[in-house]
Amino acid sequence: MREIHVSSLTKVIKTLSIDASTVANDDLVQSLKTAREKEKSPVGKNVLGQLLENIEIAKTEKIPICQDTGFTVIYMNVGQEVHFVGGDVEEAINKGVAEGYTEGYLRKSIVANPITNPKNTGDNTPAIIHTHIVPGDKVEIKLLPKGGGSENMSRLKMMKPADGVEGIKRFVLDTVSEAGGNPCPPTVIGVAVGGTFDHVAYLAKKAIGRRFGERNPDPQIAQWETEWLEEINKMGIGPAGLGGNTTSLELFIEEFPRHIATFPVAVNIQCHAARVKSITI
Predict the structure, then answer these.
(1) Partner residues linked to 4 by β-bridges
(2) pLDDT tens digits, residue range 84-100?
(3) Which residue, 2, 189, 205, 207, has fewest beta-carbon neighbours within 10 Å?
(4) What is the CATH number assigned to the segment(s) 2-22+65-146?
């Protein structure tokens, strides 16, 4: 049994909170560069260049890539041979978020009691925490700050089994089309099918945390990921919604067993910043 003091979680979460909002991942940067090379619209090409410049400034100056530094979503794979000591795990995680958003001068966007007594929590807590128990003695942590603009454009639909793959595809394309420029394209699209009302939404959001180019291991689903992305980029929405052939940088699909009478589908849209950071302790 391996012991991990919860103070280690606080330290790691604090660092990830700041880095996720200020330092873009290399796979995102490369995807934007490739998109700029292929973009046919002069305006779209210029927007992509500005996004790349903005990313470089954020990294150099240690300032947010976007002023909306999001709702902190955390995914943890906890090895079953790990024993946390020294306090409450959830409290330690939220302490790390609070310290990161305060010391990193990141915008605090979380409102407590949204319908009874709306009031900003002042430190961007609480985080949304998803924990899974897995074999081993390591803890894998993925932190994903989710901005409000792209989250507002996400959709969930309880479809009918008879709708099939074509129904899913139409729902995905319609969702992106209706979103237009609101989620700050070029976007990343997470699609999930199956499970329950709540689980399918979880899977769609988790999907946007994949690395660029990471295809679903199922060849048929991987093919749909590529084909649907191509169709999205034919819509002409383009970077910042100003036209072009780069509406989305990636599309990821996840599936999960479902009840025979249900067919839940969720689409989670991520903005061009595509912020996500991971670490293993």
Answers:
(1) 84
(2) 999 999 999 999 999 99
(3) 2
(4) 3.30.360
